[in-house]
Amino acid sequence: MKIKSISGVSKAVVLPLSIALLLAAAPVAAKDAKVSGMGIQRCSTWTGWKIAKSGELRALTLEWSNGFIAGHNIYSAATNDSQSSVVVDAKVLTALLDSFCEKYPEQRILNGVADIVQSLGGAKINVAPKSSSTPGAPESLGQPRSLTPEQRKQKGTSL
Asked: What is the chain's Cα-based Rg?
C-alpha cells in the first residue's frame, strides 16, 4: 500500500495524530462550543430555500447536517457512549428537517438536526445559541434548548 505525504508528513502519522488530538479535546466539550456554517441559519431560511427552489443551498445544508451527524457518531464511538450511531438517507433527512422547520421557524437548523439525531436513537445534544459579540461570528452554544419528550407531547409534536 502506497502512503502519500502531506507537506512531508505521511498520512500514516497524520491520521492517528488527528484522532489523538480529537480525543484529547473531548473533555473540553463541556465548555461552550463554537459553531459555524449552514447550521446556524434559521429554520425559516431553510423553508424559504424550499419555496424558492434553491436546491444548491439546501444541498449544502444537508452536507453540513451529514457532517454534524458524522461528528456525533465519531464522538459517541470514541467515548464508548451507549447511544447508537445515526445514519439518515438524504430524502429522509430532508423530510425530517422540513417538518421540524415548519413547526419551529425561529429555531436554528442545528437545533433541527440535533433533534433528528436524538429521535433516531442518538445522544441528546443540548444546543442553545447565545448572542455573539462580533457580528457574523460563529454562534456559541450553551444550555439545553431542544424540546424534551414531555414538552413535545404538550405541544403535540412527535419529532
From this structure: 17
Under 8 Å between Cβ of 115 and 159? yes
Residue at grid coordinates 461552550: 32
Residues 6+ apart with CB under 8 A from 120: 84, 86, 88
Alpha carbon of 20 to those of 13, 31, 76, 106: distances in Å?
11, 19, 15, 37
Verdict on whether the full-model pTM lies above 0.90: no
Instruction: Kindly report, residue by residue over 83-125, the tens digit of the pLDDT.
Output: 678 888 999 999 999 999 999 999 999 999 999 998 888 877 7
* Structure-block grid coordinates of residue 23: 480525543
Task: Indicate left, alpha or beta for 94 from its phi (over 0: left) and psi (-120 to 50: alpha).
Answer: alpha
C-alpha cell at 6: 502531506
Residue boundaries of the structural domains of the chain: 33-155
Residue 61 pLDDT greater than 70, yes or no: yes
Cα–Cα dist 120/48, whole Å = 26
Side-chain half-sphere exposure of 47, counting CA atoms within 13 A:
16
By the 10 Å C-beta count (0-12 exposed, 13-18 middle, 19+ buried), 143 is classed as exposed
